[in-house]
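Sequence in, structure out.
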Amino acid sequence: MRVVKGKLLPILLMLVFALSRIPGLLPTNFSAVYALMFCAGVFFSGALAWWLPLVTLLATDIGLNCYYQSLGFDVWTRSKIIYLVCNYGAYVVLIWLGRRFKPQSSFAALLGGGILGALLFYLITNTASWLFNPFGNPEYTRDFIGWLKALTIGTVGWPQTWEFFRNTLLSSGLFTGLFVGAMKLTADAESPQEKEAGVREPEATPEAEAEPEEAKT
């Protein structure tokens, strides 16, 4: 199991994340979601690392889509749902990336991992936006130039996509630092017995399982 004090802290983090998604509360693409998915992979135990952040994200996405639908936006079209599914694929990649780190990794390593996750998310989602083009952007032609436009300047009438990328990196760095700091401070406050109980045991390797004949005699 991973280092996390019960299930209270993960639930509190999910609550903070859900509140951070209130429309207009944060700048565009300045979100805690990238850091949260990565840190869930690092610190949350077992299946909790997968289902808790993804279910929370799904619940808030449904709520946001209903809100924007009430404002007259058509958010339930086939292409937009496919694009949303691609986003969830990117979130799964962030959790998977977090699982490659250990809770005991240095603050700098975890901060770098969170920023790397934001970079991967940006590449995956903007490539999906270019490929499926759910909003019908005329600039997103099906060639290399169209893909570069999706990654850099975006479409007319909206901020350039590199500005979204800047906000993605800044928010990922900020919230990863906050989440990692909170988790490490919580781990430091635990007793030695709690820490022992929270550390995931190393998996046995085939070499370790099969003792050589010399060791048995």
